[in-house]
Specification:
By secondary structure, the chain is mainly α. It has one domain (8-315). The protein has helices spanning 5-24, 30-63, 89-106, 110-118, 132-158, 162-166, 168-172, 174-179, 190-196, 206-225, 232-253, 260-287, 296-313, 317-323, 325-338, 369-377, 382-406, and strands spanning 67-68, 83-84, 185-187, 201-203, 351-353, 358-360. It has a two-stranded antiparallel ribbon with strand order 1-2. The protein has a two-stranded antiparallel sheet with strand order 3-4. Helix 11 (232-253) runs parallel beside helix 13 (296-313). The longest helix has 34 residues, at 30-63. The structure holds uridine-diphosphate-N-acetylglucosamine and magnesium ion (MG). It is found in: Endoplasmic reticulum membrane. Belongs to the glycosyltransferase 4 family. Its cofactor is Mg(2+).
């Protein structure tokens, strides 16, 4: 490992947060700026809570036998040491605490909170009238994510069958689905309007809700199957959360005079992805190569669901899908194995060669991005493989921003 572990994590954090930090300070509307600042402060606390909780959860899961072998280290001394599973429970709980605390703070006027803190906790907090629709959406999001964490943990403990596992997010998305009061129509892309004579706005009704469910099933499972290399599950989550954060802050920074509903949608997404990024970093401190804990399906389902909910309630699912190109590709490329056309082992991982310390694909490589990266770019260490796939993730997010920029005014 040429670059030391703490330095790798510091670089990843700087890469993810530099852009959002820059655009945060470009936001002109003071109320918007301050409410994001409060969300950031709560998220920072969430980072420390997650970092504190991970070892506690790990100790408990290990003592209960909820643990696994690090499969990419077979043949090395210590390869048989059990590694605690389901450590994702820690960031998930820290995240839920964050968004509950943030809701509590949101009852008060953001300016008065900042004044209260900067004056050394003196003065009075002013109550803010929150729209009912906001509260319903926010609490529905909370219930859905909470249900997903529960089902993810149930899966880790009970080892649910693959086909049942696939549809768990459907159940978790129910609170969001029944409470959803937002629009069920979509703005039709301009090229489509011209090509097949569609109106500029299409009411989709129940189809829109079906799309919401499909997105939750896709996001959760696609993160869960781009996995198996130390740091990859949490790493991709951190990058996608930061990309969504950047997207929202770019939009909010140039917002003067925009439609208030659109601003609120961007803010809603910020309130979810900021604590997600922060608590995920708290987990990465332990899950980065060499992993001292495994994240478990508790984490992959929690992270996928939070990203999906941010995409839905933030009205940014198309942008989200651009950021998720590696996951979309991995999902599509995996279908022959997932649907049994090609034999699918329990773990679709590479082989570790203890002599060289490098990973290589099996003789008959599994059909996923992890193996394809090795096939295309050559054998490498586990740490390097994770960094390569995360670099691809960053490149796809940059591509997503590029596509958005290029299609501005043309697409919608
Ligand atoms: C998914 C993948 C599976 C992959 C697994 C690894 C599909 C259909 N399923 O299954 O191919 O092997 O994730 O997460 O694509 N592990 C490591 N190193 C890591 C992370 C995990 O060795 O960095 C191993 C450990 O033994 C750990 C186990 O994977 O106990 C966790 O697997 P789990 O998340 O339960 O697998 P699935 O999500 O079912
Ligand atoms: Mg998994």
């Amino acid at each position: 490992m040429a670059v030391p572990r703490p330095m790798q994590l510091a670089l990843l954090t700087a890469l993810g947060l530099a852009g959002p930090a820059y655009f945060l300070f470009q936001i002109e509307d003071q109320k918007t700026f301050r409410s994001i600042l409060i969300s950031a402060a709560v998220s920072l606390a969430g980072f420390f809570v997650a970092r504190w909780l991970v070892p506690l959860v790990a100790q408990k899961t290990l003592s209960r036998g909820i643990c696994g072998k690090d499969l990419n280290k077979q043949g090395t001394p210590g390869a048989d040491t059990p590694i605690p599973e389901s450590a994702g429970l820690a960031p998930a709980c820290a995240f839920l605490l964050c968004i509950i605390c943030f809701e509590l703070l949101h009852y008060y006027d953001a300016d008065s909170i900042v004044a209260f803190v900067t004056s050394g906790f003196r003065g009075k907090l002013r109550l803010e009238a929150l729209p009912d629709a906001w509260l319903v959406d926010y609490n529905a999001a909370l219930a859905t994510i909470c249900f997903m964490v529960f089902l993810g943990f149930a899966d880790d403990v009970l080892d649910i069958r693959w086909r049942v596992k696939l549809i768990l997010p459907l159940f978790a998305s129910l609170p969001l689905l029944v409470a959803y009061s937002g629009g069920t129509g979509v703005a039709v892309p301009k090229p489509l309007q011209a090509a097949i004579g569609l109106p500029s706005f299409l009411e989709l009704g129940p189809l829109y809700k079906a799309y919401m469910v499909a997105l939750t099933i896709f996001c959760t499972n696609s993160i869960n199957i781009l996995a198996g290399v130390n740091g990859l599950e949490a790493g991709q989550t951190f990058i996608v959360a930061c990309a969504l954060l950047l997207h929202n802050l770019i939009e909010l920074s140039g917002f003067a005079g925009g439609v208030p509903a659109l601003r609120d949608a961007h803010l809603f997404s910020v309130y979810l992805v900021l604590p997600l990024a922060a608590t995920t970093m708290g987990l990465l401190a332990f899950n980065w190569y060499p992993s001292r804990v495994f994240v478990g399906d508790t984490f992959t389902y929690f992270a996928g669901m939070t990203i999906a909910v941010a995409g839905i309630l933030g009205h940014q699912s198309e942008t989200l899908l651009l950021f998720l190109i590696p996951q979309v590709f991995n999902f599509v490329y995996s279908t022959p194995q997932l649907f049994g056309l090609v034999p699918c082992p329990r773990h679709r991982l590479p082989v570790f060669d203890p002599k060289t310390g490098l990973l290589r694909p099996k003789d008959k490589p599994d059909w996923n991005l992890v193996n394809l990266t090795l096939q295309l770019f050559g054998n490498c260490s586990e740490n390097a493989l994770c960094v390569r796939i995360l670099a691809l993730q960053v490149a796809c997010c940059a591509f997503g921003f590029g596509v958005r920029w290029a299609l501005q005014g043309i697409y919608k």
